[in-house]
Design goal:
The chain is of the alpha/beta class. It has helices at about 105-115, 145-155, 180-190, 210-215, 215-230, 235-245, 245-260, 265-275, 285-290, 300-310, 325-335, 355, 360-375, and strands spanning about 30-35, 55, 60-65, 70-80, 90-95, 120-130, 170-175, 195-200, 315-320, 345. It comes from Salvia divinorum.
Length: about 375
């Protein structure tokens, strides 16, 4: 997670000078800005399924990279009810990058949107786990932002990709959370991805340590030492188990800043996420993410300019979370009214609003889809 992943470093083991975050500079724009307030009258439980959903079995795709063949986990959801014969558009949903990243965080949103149909379009969805995270293989690669971007592009464009037939005419949209949103925006600006629209949910760009302690040369040296230690065969597992892979740590982080309402953190969620941290190779991507190696850009200015590069070419929705940690929230707010952001909304939640409040997030995303595609169906 952007402001604080699931690696809590004791002051006795890793000393870092704290730096304050920079102020947000105001920007004028014609972007639409909305705020969605939580209300006792709104049901934020698991999304309903208005029409039948035919879900294909979870699948695995082999990603070829650097001489490795990495099994990538994905899920497909399709509308099996009314509207199934209408023109199809696919939604690619990409989880937030963190040590507990999983397709599960988007499942409720995907079910809600695919189950609705409407707008003269038959929406289908693909949720994919990152290499090294979720239920995908976790080989010991030298993970960095370029590797993750390369994967996302390959997953969409490879001829043997499980979504190849759905995106053949670039008739798809991308929903991404956290760093995933920024990676998708970056690839789109380069022309490597060509979605019809992008929704960035609680978008971030800086890893947990860089966003707090900065990225000067002295800090980069310390991050490198920590990263190397976490990747080491024996000591790495020991440190990872102490800092990350235990129920107490995961529960604490979820209740403090991953979810906005601690009451929404259930034992089932903790058990599921804890199991993810015990998978073989689980520490490699978190070691890179924690220390900034997966950051798509190097500053807030670059972050804002990245979105600005899509002005007039791709509709972009930014979904900010009202309860996000202070530093992560500041980065989201930097996109309010920014060039290239077609629409800015706020929803309840913290770093995973799509998982904590799937119905609310799905409503905003569905409205965005109708606004941009209903008349073009």
């Amino acid at each position: 997670m952007a402001a604080a992943a699931f690696l809590r470093l004791p002051s006795t083991s890793f000393s870092l000078p704290l730096q304050s975050s920079r102020p947000i500079s105001p920007r004028a724009s014609k972007s639409l800005i909305f705020k969605v307030n939580a209300s006792a009258s709104v049901d934020y439980s698991s999304p309903s399924k208005p029409t039948p959903i035919s879900t294909t079995n979870s699948g695995s795709w082999k990603w070829k990279y650097g001489g490795n063949s990495v099994n990538i986990h994905f899920e497909r959801l399709e509308n099996g009810g009314a509207g199934a014969d209408q023109p199809r558009k696919d939604i690619l949903l990409v989880p937030t990058i963190s040590d507990v990243s999983t397709v599960e965080e988007w499942r409720g949103v995907a079910e809600e949107i695919v189950g609705r149909g409407g707008g003269g379009i038959n929406w289908s969805a693909t949720i994919v786990d990152w290499p090294g995270l979720g239920y995908s293989d976790r080989p010991k690669l030298d993970y960095n932002a370029d590797v993750m971007e390369r994967f996302l592009v390959d997953f969409v464009t490879a001829s043997d990709s499980p979504v190849a037939s759905f995106v053949a005419d670039n008739d798809y949209v991308v929903f991404g959370g956290g760093h995933a949103a920024t990676v998708a925006v970056k690839a789109t600006r380069k022309g490597s991805l060509k979605p019809k629209a992008i929704a960035a949910v609680a978008p971030t760009w800086a890893g947990p340590l860089p966003i707090v302690f900065g990225k000067d040369s002295s800090m980069e040296t310390r991050y490198g030492l920590l990263r190397g230690t976490l990747r080491a065969p024996a000591l790495g597992w020991m440190m990872y188990n102490v800092l990350v892979s235990n129920e107490k740590s995961i529960t604490s982080q979820y209740k403090s800043h991953v979810y906005a309402d601690p009451e929404n953190v259930t034992p089932d969620i903790i058990d599921s996420r804890y199991a993810l941290t015990k998978r073989k190779g689980a520490r490699y991507v978190p070691a890179a993410f924690l220390t900034g190696m997966l950051d798509p850009v190097g500053s807030r200015e670059e972050f804002v300019q990245l979105f600005a590069g899509l002005e007039g070419s791709v509709p972009v929705l930014v979904v900010s979370a009202t309860g996000a940690p202070k530093r992560s929230k500041a980065e989201m707010e930097a996109l309010r009214g920014a060039k290239g952001v077609s629409k800015f909304v706020e929803v309840p939640g913290a770093l995973l609003p799509q998982e904590e409040y799937p119905k609310v997030v799905a409503e905003e995303l569905y409205r965005f889809l109708l606004e941009n595609f209903e008349s073009k169906a």
